[in-house]
């Protein structure tokens, strides 16, 4: 509940800061977003690469486990 209230307060402050009759920080906010966009894009790209690598490793591990279970089943059938 506290997080919801804080979120609403921060959104209200952001709107208040952008309006021309109050703080009129809209130009500063746009400049910040323009400067931060490449950094955010690079960060998202790096995180995506790491997630992709982890996904590939997980798929390889799952494939190995599946092959091992199939081998065990085949050995169990041969033992019967």
Please summarize what this structure is:
The protein is mainly alpha-helical.
Describe the structure.
This protein is mainly α. It is built from 2 helices and no strands. It has helices at about 1-20, 25-80. The radius of gyration is 26 Å and the shape is elongated. The termini are far apart. The mean pLDDT is about 95.
In angstroms, what is the radius of gyration? 26 Å
> What is the overall shape?
elongated
Q: Give the biggest beta sheet.
A: none
Uncertain runs: none
Distance between the termini: 61 Å
Mean pLDDT: 93
Order of SSEs = HH
User: Helical amount among residues, as a percent range?
Assistant: over 70%
Proportion in β-strands: under 5%
Structural class: mainly alpha
Number of continuous helical runs: 2
Number of strands: 0
Task: Summarize the helices and strands and which ones pair or pack.
Blueprint: H1 2-18, H2 26-79
